[in-house]
Design goal:
Layout: H1 7-10, H2 16-29, E1 35-36, H3 48-59, H4 72-86, E2 95-98, H5 100-112, E3 118-123, H6 128-135, E4 139-144, H7 153-159, E5 164-170, H8 182-195, E6 198-202, E7 228-233, E8 246-249, H9 252-263, H10 271-282, H11 286-307, E9 322-326, E10 333-335, E11 338-341, H12 344-355, E12 357-358, E13 360-361, E14 370-374, H13 379-394
Parallel strand pairs: 1-12, 3-4, 3-5, 5-6, 6-7
Antiparallel strand pairs: 2-8, 7-8, 9-14, 10-11, 13-14
This protein binds pyridoxal-5'-phosphate.
């Protein structure tokens, strides 16, 4: 008998985004004027037609457990969406509705990887991928991306061995805003075939994409449907973060395993949210277009401001709502009113404490020397935040 805690849990980090969120909330409660650019959720309300569908579900008493893989009309709406957007046809047992894309990712990882298995994660990456892999009992293998954040395909192929089960990718990407090209995804697909592994494709930002960039799903490549596990959700496209609704699509045995994870943990996604999700997919899409147009304006502004700060390296942001910029030129320097700043974490701490702006350090995404800010805030807030960031960065002594 022992009251020691789980060894697997001690290997996990508390999600760095959640940890910073709590600290910022504390500071705000103390009355400090903090501009938060750390949170990854759209600042728009959920569109009215979707809210009304949720209210209707409550009034019509759709407030009970549902089928473990989600209600039939929602799975049908997802199947239609995937056929229209990706040109891929799924059967009803190849799609399952989950409690957010996050649970879909975790369930998919548990479905294909466990003790002794490895999952390749190109970095920088979404904060949760490596910890989710660890929680599933497998080993995350981090592989750096190229300096323009494209996939280092040779490094990925070299990292594959007999234990490798999958590569996990995100496009458009959090945190870098990179959209993978069809060519690089075709190359990745051929590695997956050669090495006989899965691709877990997180497409949650697919609609938030700028300029000439186009979303391409690796699942749409001939022969890749059964090898790809597509994860998507409603949080970003429909501003539904609190409704906790996502989905996973892939080979039917992968989906059956994913549903087992859900059935033994959260049982089903919220019934009310599922009815709202049907309206989100089948209803008018003009609110999505309006939101993306607004994000594009903010992206242009944020990108221009960052590029104008000497020493900051900010690449063009192709999608999602984050700027991920290189601040290595600002490290190893002394700042007014602060100690020597050596790491991106020190710099973010300094910006928060002295300039009251909350940003995420790149090391949270396994990319030290960078900072991520979200532009899911009003133009007014962004202007104030960038004034503060610029002043903070320029305040070093040498
Ligand atoms: C890349 C990525 N995947 C998944 C998620 C989780 O989304 P959900 O709210 O649907 O769980 C997020 C949320 O920030 C994300 O950025």
């Amino acid at each position: 008998m022992s009251t020691n805690l789980s060894a697997r849990m001690s290997a996990l980090r508390v999600s760095p985004t959640t940890a910073l969120f709590s600290k910022v909330e504390e500071m705000k409660k103390r009355g400090e004027d903090i501009v938060s650019l750390n949170v990854g959720e759209p600042d728009f309300p959920t569109p009215d037609n979707i809210k009304e569908a949720g209210i209707r579900a409550i009034n019509e008493d759709f407030t009970k457990y549902t089928a473990g893989n989600g209600i039939a009309p929602l799975r049908e709406a997802i199947i239609n969406k995937l056929s229209k957007d990706n040109g891929v046809t799924y059967e009803t047992n190849e799609v399952a509705v989950m409690v957010g894309a996050k649970q879909a990712l975790f369930a998919a990882l548990c479905a294909v990887a466990g003790e002794g298995d490895e999952v390749i994660v190109p970095t920088p990456c979404y904060v949760s991928y490596p910890d989710m892999i660890t929680l599933a009992g497998a080993k995350p293998v981090l592989v750096n991306r190229n300096s323009d954040f494209s996939l280092d395909l040779k490094a990925i192929e070299d990292a594959c061995n007999e234990h490798t089960k999958a590569v996990i990718i995100c496009t458009p990407d959090n945190p870098t805003g990179r959209v993978y090209t069809e060519d690089e995804l075709r190359e990745l697909a051929s590695i997956a075939v050669r090495k006989d592994i899965f691709i877990i494709s997180d497409e949650i930002y697919e609609k938030i994409i700028f300029g000439e960039n186009r979303h391409f799903s690796i699942s749409s490549i001939e022969g890749m449907k059964d090898r790809t596990i597509v994860v998507n959700g409603f949080s970003k496209t429909y501003s539904m973060t609190g409704w906790r609704l996502g989905y996973v699509c892939g080979r039917k045995d992968v989906i059956a395993n994913s549903v087992k994870v859900q059935s033994q943990t959260t049982t089903t996604p919220p019934s009310i949210s599922q009815y709202a999700g049907v309206e989100a997919l089948n209803g008018p899409q003009d609110s999505v277009q309006r939101m993306v147009a607004e994000f594009q304006k903010r992206r242009d502004y944020v990108q221009e401001r960052l590029k104008a700060i000497p020493g900051v390296i900010c690449q063009d942001i192709q999608g999602a709502f984050y700027a991920f910029f290189d601040i290595s030129a600002f490290l190893g320097k002394e700042y007014e009113g602060a100690e020597l700043i050596e790491k991106d974490t020190d710099l973010c701490e300094y910006l928060l404490e002295k300039y009251h702006v909350a940003a995420m350090p790149g090391s949270a995404y396994f990319a030290p020397g960078f900072v991520r800010i979200s532009f899911a805030s009003s133009m007014e807030t962004l202007k104030m935040a960038l004034d503060r960031i610029e002043a903070g960065l320029k305040a070093h002594k040498c």
